[in-house]
Write a structure and sequence with these properties.
248 residues; alpha/beta; 11 helices; 52% helix; elongated
Length: 248
Amino acid sequence: MLTHPTVDLLHKLGLLGMAKGFKDLESQPEAHSLTHAEWLALLLEQEATLRRQKRFESRARAAKLRQSASVEDVDYRTPRGLDRALFLKLAGCDWVRARHNLLITGKTGLGKSWLACALGQKACREDLSTAYYRVPRLFSALAMARADGRYARVLRQIAKVDLLILDDWGPETLNADQRRDLLEIIDDRHEMRSVIITSQIPVKHWYEIIGDPSIADAILDRLVHNAYRIELNGESKRKRINSEPASE
């Protein structure tokens, strides 16, 4: 069989994984004993693997996660109240597919953002669209969008992603526009898509941060009732002299 014309044709068809797999198999003497069906199966697996990797890379770029984090690197040794069994369950991403939420609270320096980004990265690997926003910057972006006529379009974009990460909420009380923005976001996603929120403020005080009682009721009713919770406590990891920067 002529190698180069076959590889060229696979490239023209956009089957880059199969083209690479074909060249790899051609270079392995033991591969010549494989049947046609076995060759085809191996080439298709190479193509599927490459496409999964490309989808992940595309989703990870679009997510714009604040930190490079993965669920495999989570540090369970540091005392901070992280339930290993719960986190491993969350790492499976079934809760995202079930359209549940996750609330991560705790003092600064305990790794809230890192854990959220690790779950966001895993969601990208599971072929789930993800978007990360620091809450103060999101509110600023929405204020600008409201001023130049892009508000509805930006909200639609946010509503489409499977997993929305809202990082670093609080402790400032929301103003009227921010309350409405948050209600729009949470209402769009209610029982349709999932949210991770991280905050230094315990959930029981979120009512006060929102400010308006009726809007607070509407937001928290939609957000909290089907949410998993991770409540971290302990000494800030940033104060540990011998901390490991590659894991949280």
